[in-house]
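Researcher: Please translate sequence to structure tokens.
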Amino acid sequence: MNRILKEVIEHAETWPVEDQQELAEYAREIEARRTGVYSMSDDERAAVGKGLAEADRGEFVSDEIVTEADERRGG
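Model: Translation complete:
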């Protein structure tokens, strides 16, 4: 490991957990860009699982809400 990366990791060990998680997310994004493979975090995996379970139960956002969201972002 090079000196710069070692220093960043040493400093990051003193950061709050939320900041460490943010750094890990950036690292996952860089790895995904370099390899073409993205590894989901545990939180992302849980959110996807929740969304799939909702879809299995037929729980979807109404067309009206989707249209409103599209209009808000200029779509």
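Researcher: Any highlights?
Model: The two ends are 45 Å apart (CA to CA).
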